[in-house]
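Section 3.1: Structural characterization of target chains.
Under the original work plan, the team committed to producing a structural model for every single-chain target entering the pipeline before any wet-lab resources were allocated. The record below documents one such target. The sequence was received from the expression subgroup and is listed exactly as submitted; it comprises 255 residues.
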Amino acid sequence: MDTFQLVEVNKANLNNEGCYCCRSKNTSLGYRNKNEWLESNFDKGLTYVKIMEGGKPAGFIEYVPIESSSRVVYGENYMVIHCLWVQVAGKGYASALISRCLDDARALGMDGVIVLTNPDTSWTPGKAVFLKNGFIEVAQAPYQFELLVYAFRQAPEPYFPNDWEKRLAPYDQLTVLRTWQCPFIDAASQNMAEAAKKLDMPVNIVELTTREQLLRLAPTPYGVYGVVFNRQLVAFHRLTVHSAFKRLNMLQKSK
């Protein structure tokens, strides 16, 4: 493993360190919204750690107690990994970041650590590195979401809700449900709005501001971004304008 340093981002150093993603566009709305979101969530137990190689960021991990998590998973006394990303695989950096999370969760007396994965998108962490580090899959949800757990002791397992189809029912018009947990959500929302404009389609925005609201309304386990139209899921991650247009056009014709 190459020499590295772990740097925890907090309120004191946030302005200097900032988040890892979109750092090359640090004046963008998405980047600024993410940093504001970080600042407002540190007091809720959020931990954000960057891994540095030669003084440059090479990856990061973000995790938080389930009671403040942005993922649609029910449970108690678990740590939830929101994000894990490393610039170069094969250096052991992802495992080092996971180990840091496990150590923190143990120190807090938690029952374990959970993470959401999905093979269809890079907007969730990859599954393989978690299996390698001792996590096991305990549940699945629509759209290929998987729930993985690293349990420290015998305890009730976390679980997904089972009302996903019901969650889509209220949204006949194009609706974007979002938070600012991810800095790419602004670009994703803009692409969707641009595609909708080409179809003369109005867009409703629902800002998910509390965990209770997110648990109740989010159309997928990802939680922080979901697009629904004609009572069907359009996307839970960023689409290009072209892809969004094709998807919306197809659903509009099927109404």
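The chain has a mean pLDDT of 93.
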